[in-house]
Amino acid sequence: MNLILQGSADLATIQALAAPARPARIETIHALAWRCVGVDDSAEVRGQIDAAALEAKIDATFIEAGLRLSDFSLLAMDMDSTVITIECIDEIADMQGLKPQVAAITEAAMRGELDFAASLTQRVALLEGLDAGALQKVYDERLRLSPGAEALAAAARAAGVKTLLVSGGFTFFTDRVRQRLDLDYSHANVLEIANGRLTGKVVGGIVDADEKKRTVERVCAELGVPARRAIVMGDGANDLKMMSVAGLSVAYRAKPVVRAQADAALNFSGLDGILALLAQ
User: Which Pfam families match (predicted)?
Assistant: First the structure.
């Protein structure tokens, strides 16, 4: 096993953090990432290093040695608060003066405290009557890509890895983010619009945790590979089911319940922190 440490730190700090794992050597991946080779990855050591790294604002990942990005066939990513920095539904609700109410429901759903489908239905209902032009305004004025999104998408293309944006959010945004990052697939909810206004309903089935998992499995089947050939990343409880079938699951700036179950957690690095995990 290797230990990858990423963040703004000097070599002395990295050496001190890695010491409990007794690495055979420490290699520089780039200016903000180091590979500690041949480490002790017992539960006790992992717990000690994870706690120290979190306090130092360093991402620490124990990962099988030799894994490369090209060993995978699909990179599947959640959108809201993962590939982009906002929760789109919260920002849409702000146009109705309802952001605090909707954001509170979103947060509880992402922590796994509320059923996602029911919470989405409840939140979308509050948007009834809003001018559909608000969607474009949110995209233009508030939607920003997370750090490293473009670099990660480009690296996946270069490695021959297909890309999927799968979201409990809305196609209005996934379609545009997919095009912006030149991704291969996207799947999300469709907001119903009538006479230029939101009806407060979603068209068709809701993209919940089960549908996200099915989507990853469906795309892998189309590619002719098992789901373990997928890297899956997300931040909320509704991402856990699709992350559970992946060969590598990555929690990005995620809720504690997600960090606890993921193979890797990027709490401080950008999305392209994945690349350091799989660099050779």
Answer: Hydrolase
The CATH number for 1's domain is: 3.30.70
For residue 84, the domain's CATH number is: 3.40.50.1000
Q: b/e for 94-103, b at 16 or more Cβ within 10 A? A: bbbebbeebb
**Catalytic choice (50, 71, 78, 131):** 78
The answer to the question of residue 235 being in a domain is no
Known catalytic residue at 235: no
pLDDT for the residue numbered 128:
94
Is residue 10 part of the annotated active site? The answer reads: no
Q: What is the pLDDT of residues 59-109, one digit of tens each?
A: 999 999 999 999 999 999 999 999 999 999 999 999 889 999 999 998 998
The answer on 147 and 36 residing in a single domain is no
Strand extents, DSSP E, 209-275 = 230-234, 248-252, 264-266
**Phi, psi (rounded to 5 degrees) for 254:** -95, 165
Domain range enclosing 106? 74-218
The tally of CA atoms less than 13 A away on the side-chain side of residue 151 is 11
pTM over 0.70: yes
Which residue in the list 10, 59, 80, 115 is annotated as catalytic? 80
User: Which residues are within 8 A (CB) of 241 and not within 5 positions of it... i.e. 6 or more apart?
Assistant: 209, 210, 212, 213
In a domain, 59, yes or no: yes
Low-confidence ranges of the chain (pLDDT < 70): 280
Regarding whether 198 and 132 lie in a shared domain, the answer is: yes
